[in-house]
Amino acid sequence: MADVKEQRILIKFRFKLNKTAAQTCGMLKEAFGEQALNLARTFEWFKRFKDGLESVKDRRHFDRPSTCTTPEMIVKVREDILEDRKQTSHGVGKFYCEVLRRLRENVRCKRPEMWKNGDWLLHHNNAPAHTSLVVREFLTKSNMTTVLHASYSPDLAPCDFYVLPEMKLRLKGRRFISIEEIQAESQQVLNTLTPEDFNECFQKWQNRWDRCIQAQGDYLKGDGGN
Description:
By secondary structure, the protein is mainly α. It has 3 domains: 4-61, Arc Repressor Mutant, subunit A (Orthogonal Bundle); 71-141; 154-214, no CATH class. The protein has 10 helices and no strands. It has helices at 4-16, 21-32, 39-50, 71-110, 112-117, 128-131, 133-141, 158-171, 179-192, 195-214. It is elongated. The two termini are 43 Å apart. Mean pLDDT is 79; it is low at 60-68.
């Protein structure tokens, strides 16, 4: 990649001139082509400078030890990466368990008959956090019945084909200065969804399942599940 430090200096210069990250990213692409930093990295450095950072050095590289590529070190790094993945999945899984606890409580309070009869099902996709051991243990202990999700049909999850695209559409083109602002605006979008919106969502969900069954579980391309 072209001199990354040089690009960071340019980003800092543009930040000082009150230019936007998007404009700066476009300038970098024009100047460096495929070697330019992407939009996410440009936004990241804008945020660092906004937080008061003056250095253009990558903080992740400070005090970095000398490179060592012995077979023993390669094995150790591979083991560390695998262990970190397990820890990350476990941590996200524990958070997801808390979400499921709130869901159960909402069903108990707002749908007492369904709660009493156990006449409700949970449908989520096959994301690692959803299939982690801690989540599977929670579902078993809580007697929560899940709907089978086809392995190669990610577009069957209502959040993926309906809620998230709707949220992206309403927030498209807007700039946010903090995670809290993003969370607040996203919640506001969710609050505007009506019962009719969810009825439409579930109708699309049923249509997509029908197509998946007809395709015998093959991956469904495009948005033909409406």
